[in-house]
Design goal:
Length: about 240
Amino acid sequence: MLTPLWLLSLSLPTLWAEILIRCSYKGLCQQALVSGNDVVLQCDHPKALWYFSSILGEDPFLLSSVPNIKKLPGGSLQLTNPQPSQTGLYHCQDSGNALVVEYEIDFQDVSTLHVTHRGLGQKPLQNETLSLGGRVLVFTRWEPWQDCNRCGEPGERKRLGYCYIEEPQEKAMPCWLYLRGEKTHSSRLRTELQVEACLAPCDHVKETNQPYFIFDIYPLGKLTNNMWLTCPLASIYR
Ligand SMILES: *[C@@H]1O[C@H](CO)[C@@H](O)[C@H](O)[C@H]1NC(C)=O
């Protein structure tokens, strides 16, 4: 009886709590993500070496002893609770120093998330031009809507919108990869989350394959007027 339980606790967190970011072999992929939500950067090389350089331009350093970063057995990199300060270039190379894959990741700050509900008439952020040397456009690039959180009855669904900056005639970039540590005081530089009502039919195959979990519930203390709640295995990406 112990073995299946042990397997369950080992395999589910990686399957359910994290999203996998992929990029083609020898490619460089740029991506905006939300801080505080676990991700795995794929690199299929068991002896992979991962280097990181932040947007502040310091020399790349080997990622071997950063507390919230772990190399998985297949070579991919697992980031638990990544922080905005971990925005930068993640470079994966093989044992012969040849590039396997690179990711330029912008971990946009979850604590300044701009949340709106469509059904309540709340408006997402508007496009805005900023003057940073030249004129640049700040806008939100929306992800597709995620699945409805209920089926067969009214529910809600959400989508994420990342902060992007575009120079005239240039390809848009995630805001903090564009800014590279430059200090700007604009309240438009935020990531968005939009919510709307949905009604989705039930797909029984899908529903019955979802695991469920039981957790203890503790009453909130009278003395704490501010508390950080974490939902185990939850992720903003689904
Ligand atoms: C905001 O800017 C983006 C990027 O240029 C563009 O695709 C979008 O249509 C703009 N939205 C509005 C409302 O002008």
